[in-house]
Amino acid sequence: MTASKTLPLSMVHTILLYAVRRSTCSFENDEQLYFPCGVDWMAGQVCHEWRRVALRIMYSTCHATIKEAAENITVGPLLDLSQIAKAGYSVLEHTSKVCMYVDCSDIFSGKAQHMLLSPRLSKLGFPHATGLELHVHNFGRLKLDCPKEAFVHAIGFCRRIKAMLPAAETLDMVYGSNYIIADMQFGALFQKFIKEMGNDKSKVTMCCSSIPIPHARPEDIHAGLTSLVYRWDNTYGKSIPLVHRNAASLVSLKVIHACTSSFDKLFMVQEQEHVTYPALQTLEIVPESTSTSVLSRQKFLGLMPFPALKRLNLQTAYPFADDVLFRGNSKTLHSLTIRLDEETALLLCSSGTFANRSYKRLADVRIMSGAGKTGEDKHSAISLYMQLVLAILPTVGRLRIEHEEIAAALVSEVPEAQEFKRIHSLHLKQEASLTDILRLLMVMPGLVQLEAAFSGLGREFKDLDDAGRLSLVESRYARLAGSSFSRLVVRSGGRASMNALVTSAVLLAAVCPRLKKVGASDSSSSSSSNAQEFNEGIGKLLHGTESYKKHAAAIKQLLIPESPT
Fold first, then answer.
1. How large is the average pLDDT for residues 394-416?
2. Contact at 8 Å (CB) between 343 and 372?
3. Looking at the predicted structure, is the pLDDT value of residue 443 above 80?
4. Are 336 and 365 a contacting pair, CB within 8 Å?
5. 80-94, 152-166, 491-505 — which one is most confidently predicted on average?
6. Are 233 and 306 members of one domain?
7. How many distinct structural domains can be found in the chain?
8. pLDDT tens, 178-224?
9. How many helices (H) and strands (E) would you count in the chain?
10. Which domain of life is it from (predicted)?
């Protein structure tokens, strides 16, 4: 039987990743790229069966640039189109997406078009590729001597690119984020280029990052964008009609907040004319690192702007005076990241946003600490926080709390009479003792993974010997035997904490038979010394205490802990 039939596809893929010479590079401010350095490896370095299996995986996405353009771009060994052309149809037929990197000056000077029409590339095509991602960079290098001629070159480039991808259904335009086109003449020319790239086939949908034209008029920009990254500052705020023009088609919108302006214009065309986003599934509002502004708060009574929203990532202070971001999407919202301060918690509690388990599909929640300060009545603030958390817990599967007050309250104040069966992953910024961990497991019977800072054994175990601790755990927490708990990641802080962690891990393994992985991070030593100390401690407890021997099978599986990432 051949290797490709006996090995799982994922394993073949992994083997080939190690066998093939690969390289990494970054392209201006883009994410790091990872791709094969060439295509010659497939001629003789792998067998025919593995080659057939690997082609559709390793060349499903093709990163490429044009050779003349590459001379102006210091990005490392990206594949140029001439290398790809040598691979032949047997490779190109497996490509479903093409990511092409091109210098803006090469588009408008005609260099890029000339290369695409050269004999070695004139027949190049990606017959089954349905997606094109075009990265356009280095606007600052461009000098227009003849705008009309430059536009002819740009149109020729567009048409040749689209002829290479006859089955294209999506077009993503990506621009270097630090580039702004201040020249009005070139701005108008670039707008026409964008429209030409996306308007000749009705089936083509288009997404783009921030349009690098601060003075763009909405009627000059291609409508029908599905994805937009928009930098909200005092310059870009003037061209907010770009967002409004595409409100009906946008599926993903990321707003980078970098000014003191409020978000009123996001929902408002004029004083009484509101905007809705019927197809939007992902909304991100994130602050720029230099932004320290306080947002104004505007009410939008009755407006439901995001009826199809699935993912809300709100990393600024909540920018409105009501729950407008949550209206009308209780049946669709799946993932939520939010900064909570006392004022925001009061707003959401008073509006009953999460009351009566209204968000039944909300499965992934991250709560960050807000910028607002807690008032004099700290107990009142914590009560508000817990009211929100307890309303969310019945439906959520993954909960990450990076708000110390909420994390502390969750550990100490979750009612023991309640059970939250859906939650399977919990990450806490706050410290938790063994007592706290056991208490959380009792109220969260479906919990599989817990990550928290570790503070020790807890008061109820402090004055007991090993036999007494084991007896207490077995009697008080016996029903954890049916628990799904299998992974614990803790952050300890020294030798005493490590000793307490070893004891806690053994006690947990005694009552939680599925516990197999314990990750321990100790800032005072390396990961290898952590593992060695952890293993030695478990060995001493296991062999030195008669009481633990009946749990030997459960405890031995902890001997090689997995370090946290």
1. 83
2. yes
3. yes
4. yes
5. 152-166
6. yes
7. 4
8. 455 555 566 667 767 777 776 554 445 555 555 555 555 555 566 67
9. 20, 19
10. Eukaryota
User: Could you report the per-residue pLDDT of 446-464, keeping only the tens digit for each?
Assistant: 899 998 888 888 888 888 8
Please tell me whether residue 321 adopts helix, strand or coil conformation. Answer: coil
Are 137 and 234 within one domain? no
Are residues 58 and 185 located together in one domain of the fold? Answer: yes
Residue numbers of the domain that contains 252: 223-330
Quick one: 18 and 86 in the same domain?
A: yes
* pLDDT (mean) for 89-116: 82
Element (H, E) at 189: helix 184-198
- Based on the domain organization, do 35 and 180 belong to the same domain? yes
Same domain, yes or no, for 196 and 85?
yes
For 556, phi then psi, to 5°, come to -60, -30
The helix/strand/coil state of 272 is coil
Contacts of 486 (CB under 8 A, 6+ apart): 448, 449, 512, 514, 515, 516, 517
Q: In this structure, is residue 421 part of a structural domain?
A: no
In angstroms, rounded to a whole number, what is the distance separating the alpha carbons of residues 563 and 527? Answer: 7
Instruction: Give tens-digit pLDDT for 3-34.
Output: 545 666 667 666 665 555 444 444 444 444 44
d(C-alpha 8, C-alpha 53), whole Å: 11
| Pairs from 301-306 (Cβ < 8 Å, separation ≥ 24) | 303/267, 303/274, 303/276, 303/327, 304/276, 304/328, 304/329, 305/266, 305/267, 305/274, 305/275, 305/276, 305/277, 306/276, 306/277, 306/280
Alpha-carbon distance of 542 to 547, in angstroms, equals 9
| pTM of the predicted model as reported, rounded to 2 decimal places | 0.73
Write the DSSP string, 79-125: EEHHHHHHH-HHHHTT--EEEEEEEHHHHHHSHHHHHHTSTTTTT--
Is position 113 within any domain?
Answer: yes
